[in-house]
């Protein structure tokens, strides 16, 4: 057995104890091609996929995982999460952050990434945290195996104007916040550059910039502009100097267009995008990362009197407009990624957005692509993520039945593997 394995390993790689796993897939979704293949075998060596195909020879001694009665997909990617912030379902006010130390926030958020991984999300782009750099610490804790969670690509902080959408607002003016709650504040192109240099130095993977006001921030108006075009250009230029991409939070139509023209990789929310904005996004290849499920949670929390009244006022009508603009963008053929703003809804229910994406105009395959091949492209990681191809990470999930017929099956993921390691396996 040992000899057979060694022969298989071949001359290129002399790792004698390389671990080989074979996954037998009844159906396998290929988001790159938009197809579903039958009776496939995925061969995994250590943490990467080595080969995929029908009738592949399974090396002797390989661990065999039989998913022949399931549909196998690449691990899902959520491009808009906030895993390192505490989410208390009884207290949805950002002031919650002022009632806890940074350490309490960090430890209390430990269950969030585990919940995410167990629902089939093996990668997230985490786009901002109130306690600056806690997300970097969480990413590293996962990578070091201290805690369980998806692979995280993190922003480090919110780059925001003072008093803006990503700031901690609403306190009396004589209250001074600790450094980490105002880390991302910047009020000129040069301050924006300075913040981004600092974040790059501290290990951020991407930059989150707030182009317009927000729904869930005191004193902020989602219809108002915050950063100027000059500041947005400075952000993209400086981030690109460090090889980082920028995602821009934007609700208002002008703020969306300013950010697209500045060259951001994605527009978050894109709530009030107009026809010109849709055309611009298409022209520039900008992704729209529209969190169209959230509205359910904001309104539910509102009914339970848990959401501050000014937030509900911001939110009124925006949910319906965002969904109809989502439909327009899908029809126009704009690039779309899967982002849920997880943290607004409880962690672990974000797969519910798939059904809403289908309801508002996507095919089930398009919805799956938004969370796999498109998301990988947005992250600039198509060589490692987004489909089950040789050389990519062995991030594999499976569901019972056919999610292309019933996309809600993605809410009940039965099998989760991240980098060749199994985290969940249900019949
Ligand atoms: Zn967000």
Features:
globular; 5-stranded parallel beta sheet; binds zinc ion; 31% helix; single chain; alpha/beta; 21% strand; 7-stranded mixed beta sheet; 427 residues
How would you name the oligomeric state of the polypeptide chains in this document?
single chain
Helix-strand pattern: HEEEEEHHEHEHEHEHEHEHHHEHHHEEE
What structural category do the secondary elements indicate?
alpha/beta
Number of contiguous helices? 14
Mean pLDDT: 93
The hetero compounds bound to this protein are: zinc ion
> What proportion of the residues form beta strands (DSSP E)?
15-25%
What is the general shape?
globular
CA radius of gyration is: 22 Å
Mind summarizing the main beta sheet?
Answer: 7 strands, mixed
Description:
31% of the residues lie in helices and 21% in strands. The chain is built from 14 helices and 15 strands. The strands form three sheets. A seven-stranded mixed sheet has the order 3-2-1-4-13-14-15, with no helix packed on it. β6, α4 and β7 (151-154) form a beta-alpha-beta unit. The two termini are 29 Å apart. The site of zinc ion (ZN) has 4 residues, from loops.
Task: Give a brief description.
The chain has 427 residues and is of the alpha/beta class. It contains 14 helices and 15 strands.
Layout of strands and helices, then pairs:
Layout: H1 2-9, E1 20-30, E2 35-45, E3 48-53, E4 63-74, E5 76-81, H2 102-108, H3 111-118, E6 121-126, H4 134-143, E7 151-154, H5 189-202, E8 206-210, H6 229-241, E9 245-250, H7 253-262, E10 266-269, H8 275-284, E11 287-289, H9 295-303, H10 309-315, H11 318-332, E12 336-337, H12 353-359, H13 364-370, H14 373-379, E13 396-400, E14 415-418, E15 421-425
Bound molecules: zinc ion.
Zinc ion (ZN) binds at residues 80, 82, 127, 341.
């Amino acid at each position: 057995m040992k000899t057979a394995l060694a022969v298989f390993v071949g001359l290129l790689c002399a790792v004698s104890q390389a671990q080989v796993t074979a996954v037998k897939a009844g159906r396998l979704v290929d988001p790159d091609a938009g197809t579903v293949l039958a009776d496939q075998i995925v061969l995994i060596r250590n943490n990467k996929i080595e080969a995929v195909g029908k009738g592949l020879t399974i090396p002797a001694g390989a661990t065999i995982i039989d998913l022949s009665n399931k549909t196998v997909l690449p691990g899902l990617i959520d491009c808009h999460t906030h895993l390192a912030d505490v989410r208390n379902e009884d207290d949805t006010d950002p002031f919650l952050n002022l009632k806890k130390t940074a350490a309490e926030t960090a430890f209390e958020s430990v269950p969030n990434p585990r919940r995410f991984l167990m629902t089939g999300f093996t990668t997230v782009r985490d786009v901002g945290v109130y306690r600056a750099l806690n997300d970097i610490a969480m990413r590293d804790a996962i990578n070091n195996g201290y805690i369980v969670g998806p692979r995280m690509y993190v922003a480090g902080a919110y780059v925001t104007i003072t008093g803006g959408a990503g700031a901690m607002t609403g306190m009396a003016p004589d209250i001074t916040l600790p450094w980490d709650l105002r880390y991302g504040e910047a009020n000129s192109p040069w301050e924006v550059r300075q913040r981004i240099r600092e974040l790059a130095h501290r290990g951020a993977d991407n930059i989150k910039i707030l182009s317009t006001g927000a729904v869930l921030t005191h004193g902020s108006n989602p219809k108002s502009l915050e950063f100027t075009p000059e500041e947005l250009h400075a952000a993209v230029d400086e981030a690109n100097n460090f090889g980082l991409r920028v995602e821009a939070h934007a609700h208002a139509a002008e703020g969306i267009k300013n950010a697209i023209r500045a060259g951001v990789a994605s527009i978050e929310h894109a709530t009030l995008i107009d026809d010109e904005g849709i055309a611009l996004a298409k022209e520039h290849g900008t992704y729209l990362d529209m969190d169209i499920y959230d509205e359910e949670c904001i309104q539910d929390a509102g009914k339970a009197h848990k959401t501050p009244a000014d937030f509900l006022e911001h939110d009124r009508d925006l949910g319906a407009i965002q969904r109809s603009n989502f439909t327009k963008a899908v029809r126009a053929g704009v690039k779309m990624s899967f982002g849920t703003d997880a943290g607004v809804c409880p962690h672990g229910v974000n797969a519910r957005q798939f059904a809403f994406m289908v309801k508002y105009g996507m095919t089930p395959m398009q919805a799956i692509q938004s969370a796999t091949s498109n998301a990988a492209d947005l992250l600039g990681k198509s060589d490692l993520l987004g489909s089950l191809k040789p050389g990519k990470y062995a991030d594999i999930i499976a569901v019972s039945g056919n999610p292309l017929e019933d996309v809600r099956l993605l809410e009940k993921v039965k099998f989760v593997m991240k980098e060749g390691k199994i985290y969940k396996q249900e019949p």
